[in-house]
Structure formats: C-alpha cells, structure tokens
Amino acid sequence: MSLINQMIIIGNLGGDAEVKDTKNGNLLAKFSVAVNKKGKDGQESTTWVNVQAWRNLAEACCNLKKGDRVVVIGEYISNAYMSTAGEKKYFNSLNAVFVAKPILSSEKNNQNNGQSSFNEFGTSVSEEEYNAQHSNEEIPF
Q: What's this model's pTM, rounded to 2 decimal places?
C-alpha cells in the first residue's frame, strides 16, 4: 500500500521570497508562511511553515512579497545536517508543487465588484480579462 505525504496551507508570507540559483544550476525559492488559527478559547496562534519551490515554480515565486496571502500544496520533508558544534540538527519544510495567490482581498474585490477568477499562474484576473482570454469565437464548432 502506498502512503501519501501531502500538505496544504493557506497563510501570509513572513518576508519576500528569496530566489537563487543552486550550484547544480537549478532555481530555488525559499519563503516562510504564517498560518493562523483561533483556538476554542478565542486565542489566535501562528504556525510558521518554511517553504521551498524549485525550477519553474521558483521563477513564478519571485514576485511574492511579505504579507501576500498564498495557497501552497506540497510534500512535507525533514532534512538533517551537522551544526558547527557537531550536533545533528533537523530542518522541516514544505517542498511545494503548487503555489498561488488566492482571489483578491476584500478591499480589492470592492474595486472589481467582487468579480475575479484565477489565471494559470494562480493570480486573479477580472471577469473582463478572463472573458477576453477565453472567447467562444475561437471554438471551431
């Protein structure tokens, strides 16, 4: 039986995404996401999730800025390394396979009459832009 390791988070970026080339020539984006929830007592708690995205997805993440709300889907991984003191340390992160900005915030929705949808890169577009990109005139039947 095959097991599944998939994690889905929705939260806000704690800082701008850092994008760099690795020694192997692969593009890597790293950022942290704050996921907030309210407990039964009404107190809000925050869980910080470190995220890494590779290659084309890393390139798409280069415009992510501190405070942006994102949806991230990926595999939860744990990496081990040796500290300078010779101790074995662990670093947990989410290896992203999908990153998107959800529909516009309510303030921006008011400017667009609440009409928006996702484009193929996960950012939202107005209804007019969507209809212009997906015209029925191009369908050959």
A: 0.69
